[in-house]
Amino acid sequence: MEQLIKKVVEFGALNAKIKDTNSVVILYDAKEKCKEGCPFYDKKQGCPPSSPKYKEIENILKEYKKCMLIQCENMDKVDNVLREIKKYLKEEDKECFIFGAKVCNVCEEFYNEKCTYPDCKHKGEVIPQMSGCGIDALKTALNMGYSENDFVIQKNSYKNEDIKFYGMVVF
C-alpha cells in the first residue's frame, strides 16, 4: 500500500491515505442538495441526476475492499492524478473505480468541443464527482485519518463556502 501512495504522490497528489471502503460516508439526500443549490445539476455528465445513484455507490463500495483518498491543491490536479492512478492500476491488472472533485469538462478540456450533455459522447471518460454521488468528502476524510487542519481550502465562487480538494479511488 505504501508503494501505491508513493506513486500517487509522484503523479502530483499532496498525499493519500488508504483504508477499507467502510470508511466512506454516503449522504442519502445529496442529490436533493445538488438539485436545490448547484448550478450544474442536470447540466453535466458526472453530476446528478446522471451520476451513479445511492444504491449503485453502495454496490461499488461493497465490490471493492480498499479506498484511497487523495488530497491535491486544486480540482484539476485531483482529476489528473485520478486518471494517472487508474491507468497505473490497469497496467498492474487491478480494477478500480474513481470519484473526482470537479464537474465534468471532458468535452472542453480534451476535445475542444462544446458539452453535448445529456447526449454525452465521452461517457467512458467522465469522472463522477464525489459529492454528486452522495459521498461526503469531509466526513470520509476524517474517517480516513485526516484532520480538519489537513484540508486544502478555496472559496466556492457560487456559494461562498470552502471546498476541500479530494478524490477517491476504490480498488
What does this molecule look like?
- 33% of the residues lie in helices and 16% in strands.
- The chain has 6 helices and 6 strands.
- It starts with a helix and ends with a strand.
Instruction: Please provide the count of β strands.
Output: 6
How much of the sequence is in beta strands?
15-25%
Please compute the radius of gyration using only Cα atoms: 15 Å
| Mean pLDDT across all amino acids | 89
- Compressed to H and E, one letter per element, the order equals HEHHEHEHHEEE
Spans of 5+ residues with little confidence (pLDDT < 50)?
none
Count of runs of 4 or more consecutive helical residues:
6
| Derived structural class | alpha+beta
Amino- and carboxy-terminal Cα gap: 11 Å
Strand arrangement across the biggest beta sheet: 1-2-6-3
- Sheet with the most strands? 4 strands, antiparallel
The residue fraction in helices comes out at: 25-40%
Short description:
With 171 residues, the protein is of the alpha+beta class. Helix content is 33%, strand content 16%.
Key structural traits:
171 residues; four-stranded antiparallel sheet; 16% strand; alpha+beta; two-stranded antiparallel sheet
Explain the layout of strands and helices:
Layout: H1 2-10, E1 15-20, H2 30-37, H3 54-63, E2 66-71, H4 75-91, E3 97-99, H5 106-111, H6 137-143, E4 153-156, E5 161-164, E6 166-170
